[in-house]
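Design request, tokens follow.
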């Protein structure tokens, strides 16, 4: 396989893997430990979870932007 194609496919696999790991971590903490749901009123754990969720999502997007920045089309 050509090196450009290999690098492109590796970048795709790394992007998908990072997104899946992010989803698994947040789903585990949110659903398994119950921080994603409110009982009667939001608790400190709910606030911390949602702040973490939004902050980690922003960091994931910034990481993926940096990873894909400067990528040229194959054949250019």
């Amino acid at each position: 396989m050509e090196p450009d194609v290999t690098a492109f496919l590796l970048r795709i696999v790394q992007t998908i893997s990072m997104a899946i790991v992010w989803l698994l971590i947040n789903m585990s903490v949110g659903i398994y430990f119950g921080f994603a749901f409110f009982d009667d009123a939001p608790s400190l754990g709910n606030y911390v979870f949602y702040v973490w969720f939004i902050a980690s999502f922003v960091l994931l997007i910034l990481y993926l932007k940096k990873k894909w920045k400067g990528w040229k089309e194959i054949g250019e």
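Comment from the thread starter after seeing the answer: thanks! Residues 3-68 form one domain.
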